[in-house]
Amino acid sequence: MTGDDSALAPTVDPSATTGPGPRLSARGLSAGYPGRTVIEGLDLDITPGRITMIIGANACGKSTLLGVLARLTAPLAGSVRLDDIDVATIPRRRFAQTVGMLPQHPTAPDGLTVAELVSRGRHPHRGLFDRWGQADTKHVDEAMRRTGVAELADRPVGDLSGGQRQRVWIAMSLAQNPEVLLLDEPTTFLDLSHQLEVLDLLVSLNRREGTTIVVVLHELNLAARYADELIVMRDGRIVAGGAPTDVLTKEVVADAFALDALVMPDPLTKTPLIVPVPGGAHTGNEPA
């Protein structure tokens, strides 16, 4: 990161992508947990080769949706499809070669070093008896370099700070080299400077390699700045989707977040900038 203001703005050039990859979609999707349906009857198309960010209030179904797209949990009804093939019919290893997922709270075995954890990203690309090759080393080294954790290679993951651990997990996801990368709150535990570095890294990955990236993000203004497309959720349904300038209106913010806010152009990127009105948060408990 540099000290000038231009470092805060990502370089966004959609024409620079290397071409669309596989299309991830959902049809009639219902998902949840025993005794509780979180998402019901949802249809979704993720645009290949773009950065899509999913936003919404707490408990609206963002992480549930991402987990079903990644095959971490099975849908209650409907299907997730990859290039119109039901992902339930795709062998798990083959699916993992195409779609990678970084969950919100990943865990690593005690004593595992940074290099060992990042190397696990190569597992989907190696058969049971395959030897470690130069391509594996290249992907792991490049992933650690790009996330700034190469100097931590021999450190146990458990000894790292929260921010360092998060960057190591992102490095593991990059080492997997998926065509579609799903990330659930990847900037958790990071200060603002490192949040921007991580998001700049995702933009670089998308623009250089055409990787389709889907991110659940909590911070509205960063989502608006870095997304090609936004999906806004409320109560397990999609209430708006499209380009940030089309989606993040005063009305959508009020509907999805129960928040009165001003919506104005970001002075650096011209993307929507959300400024909450003092006293404008509605919890649902105030008198009518």
CATH topology, which one? Rossmann fold
Largest sheet: 6 strands, mixed
The general outline is globular
Which residues sit in consecutive blocks of at least 5 with pLDDT less than 50? 1-18
Which architecture does the CATH hierarchy give at level 2? 3-Layer(aba) Sandwich
Structural class: alpha/beta
**Helices and strands, in N-to-C order?**
EEEHEEHEHHHEHEHEEHHEE
By CATH, the superfamily comes out as: P-loop containing nucleotide triphosphate hydrolases
Query: Any idea how many domains?
Result: 1
Kindly provide the radius of gyration, computed on alpha-carbon positions and rounded to a whole number of angstroms: 19 Å
- The number of strands is 12
Distance between the termini: 48 Å
Please state roughly what percent of the residues sit in beta strands, choosing from under 5%, 5-15%, 15-25%, 25-35%, 35-45% or over 45%.
Answer: 25-35%
Pfam families: ABC_tran
Region (Disordered): 1-29
Protein name: ABC transporter ATP-binding protein
InterPro entries: AAA+_ATPase, ABC_transporter-like_ATP-bd, ABC_transporter-like_CS, P-loop_NTPase, Siderophore_ABC-ATPase
Write a short abstract of this structure.
With 288 residues, this protein is an alpha/beta fold.
Describe the structure in your own words.
The protein is α/β, with parallel strands linked by helices and 288 residues long. The protein has a single domain (5-108, 178-281), classed as 3-Layer(aba) Sandwich (Rossmann fold), CATH 3.40.50. 30% of the residues lie in helices and 27% in strands. It contains 9 helices and 12 strands. The chain has helices spanning 62-69, 92-98, 114-119, 134-146, 162-176, 192-209, 220-226, 244-247, 250-257, and strands at residues 24-33, 36-46, 51-56, 77-82, 85-86, 99-102, 180-184, 212-216, 229-234, 237-242, 259-265, 272-281. The strands form 3 sheets. The chain has a 6-stranded mixed beta sheet, with helices on both faces. Strands 2-1-4-5 form a 4-stranded antiparallel beta sheet, covered by helices on one side. Helix 4 packs antiparallel against helix 5 (162-176). 38% of the residues are buried. Mean pLDDT is 86; it is low at 1-18.
